[in-house]
Amino acid sequence: MTTPAPSGEGPALRLRGVDVSYSTQLTRVPVLSGVDLAVSRGEFVILAGPSGSGKSTLLRVLALVSRPAAGSVHVLGRDVTRAGNAELRRLRSRQVTLVYQNPGDNLFDYLSVAENLRARAQLAGREDPGPALLERMGLGGTGSWPTQALSGGQQQRLALACAVGAGADVVLADEPTSQLDHRSAELVVETLTQLHGLGVTLVVASHDPRLLELGPRVVRIRDGHLHSGAAKEGTT
């Protein structure tokens, strides 16, 4: 099923006919089947579905971490279906960021908060955004802290700040609030809203009712197939 994207500038992300499967000793198990998806630049999309539905796999394909067995992948107007590993690494360091479910997986635990921010910017060939970005993301005064001293919610916000500091055009997040307490999750939701306001393209896999309510467009996935995805009435 083709999931329509709202009209606008052209897609930041486009999948056509994407299939992903894995092998067992007896057979091949489909994970994604014939997925068509377009996400416009600056759009905020929530990817919803039960556990095992293919959400994380779909995010990994969009994030250029996993390659599909069939179909095409376009990022920011470029066909990257057969791009080499070096080009995919460059896109991941500069334009496309995946934020993992476990907050600690997104950071260099041997670096301080400020050093994480600086390292991600340098990998993308950008200048260190400095403490101003930490202030903007609600992390003021934590620059010298080790990442382990941050709460889970603060770690997720730092991961999102690193994406901004690296100049990412697209941020994908896999259940970013699922391992957080209520207040920490609310702060991450606020940060995602802030990124959307900055024009970042967001695709977030989540069961969180706050995100399902917040997202202007909800795409539902079940058994590797997309089932809906129109923008909510009155949104752009």
TrEMBL record:
Domain ABC transporter, first and last residues per copy: 15-236
SMART domains, A to Z: AAA (SM00382)
Single GO term (MF): ATP binding
Matching InterPro entries: AAA+_ATPase, ABC_transporter-like_ATP-bd, ABC_transporter-like_CS, ABC_transpr_LolD-like, P-loop_NTPase
Keywords of the record: ATP-binding, Nucleotide-binding
Transmembrane segment boundaries: none
Protein name: Macrolide transport system ATP-binding/permease protein
Pfam families named in the record: ABC_tran
ATP-binding keyword on record: yes
Gene3D superfamilies the UniProt entry points to: P-loop containing nucleotide triphosphate hydrolases
Keyword field contains Transmembrane: no
